[in-house]
Design a protein that fits this description.
Number of helices: 5
Number of domains: 1
Shape: globular
CATH superfamily: lambda repressor-like DNA-binding domains
Distance between the termini: 36 Å
Order of helices and strands: EHHHHHE
CATH architecture: Orthogonal Bundle
C-alpha cells in the first residue's frame, strides 16, 4: 500500500503574505542580494520568503521591514 505524502505547509498556505518584492522595487529596485546583506540572510532565503515558501523569524521579519524603511505590517500580513 502506498503512503500518502504529507503536504508541507508553506508560509502562504498558513495565511502569511508579504509585499517584499513590491517594496524592493518601490525602493529603487533594491536587489535581493542587497536586502539579504542588510538583514543578515542569504539571497536564497530572501527569495524563499518572497515566494511564501519560508516564513522569516520574528527578528528577521522586523529587520526586513527596517531595511525597507516601512512599518512591519506594511510588509507582512496575516489573512485569516
Amino acid at each position: 500500500m502506498a503512503r500518502k505524502a504529507k503536504k508541507k505547509k508553506t508560509a502562504s498556505s498558513l495565511g502569511v503574505q508579504n509585499r517584499i518584492r513590491a517594496l524592493r522595487f518601490d525602493r529603487g529596485e533594491m536587489t535581493q542580494a542587497t536586502l539579504a546583506k542588510r538583514v543578515g540572510l542569504t539571497r536564497q532565503t530572501i527569495i524563499a520568503i518572497e515566494q511564501g515558501r519560508n516564513s522569516p523569524s520574528l527578528e528577521a521579519a522586523f529587520k526586513i521591514a527596517k531595511a525597507l524603511k516601512v512599518p512591519f505590517d506594511e510588509v507582512f500580513q496575516f489573512d485569516e
